[in-house]
């Protein structure tokens, strides 16, 4: 599903963000990536999104070798990933329905399918009645739910969440994590980058700890259940 072999990333400034990391994530896993600022978490996500190229090492996602991917293939590859950020990145001039529908329109989904898919996603994230609302009319937690619905509407088999609770209060943070867990239980592989140690401690998931560009710990918590391929 996700396979990094001896991946190094050095920037032109001389900073080495990743130093020979090897990481394998199986289909259906839920994995937390944690670590201090500067540990390499964000660089890892950018490499998986093909926003950056590794200095050395290999990266495969869904059986695709990212090292050999041509530029023209990147947009199509990214559309098969679900991505959620802490700043939501919603289109401010479009309502909730249109924000989610937009993700389908860019891949030319037929209108009749969009009309079926968007309400399903809104029901999944508990916002069925907010479809006409604009982002500024929603709370932070609701905006993140819209972002999740948008990330999931194209049925990605991998969801990357970069600090998804970073701008939320504890209650909303727990609700978003519960949603991510539900999404994972439906078969989506989930990677969550977070600073929220309380949430990590509460959830019995695999936890990968990074420090100064290396993986220093990779643990499955008590009660963790390995999903089958």
TrEMBL record:
Part of the ABC transporter FtsEX involved in cellular division. Residues 2-228 form the ABC transporter domain. It comes from the Bacteria. One of its GO terms (molecular function) is ATP hydrolysis activity. It comes from Anaerosacchariphilus hominis. Transmembrane segments: none annotated. This is Cell division ATP-binding protein FtsE. It is a peripheral membrane protein. Belongs to the ABC transporter superfamily. Pfam families: ABC_tran. Homodimer. Forms a membrane-associated complex with FtsX. SUPFAM superfamilies: P-loop containing nucleoside triphosphate hydrolases (SSF52540). Keywords: ATP-binding, Cell cycle, Cell division, Cell membrane, Membrane, Nucleotide-binding. InterPro entries: AAA+_ATPase, ABC_transporter-like_ATP-bd, ABC_transporter-like_CS, ABC_transpr_LolD-like, Cell_div_FtsE, P-loop_NTPase, Sigma_54_int_dom_ATP-bd_1. The keyword Membrane applies. One of its GO terms (biological process) is cell division. It is found in: Cell membrane. GO terms for cellular component: plasma membrane. The keyword Ribonucleoprotein does not apply.
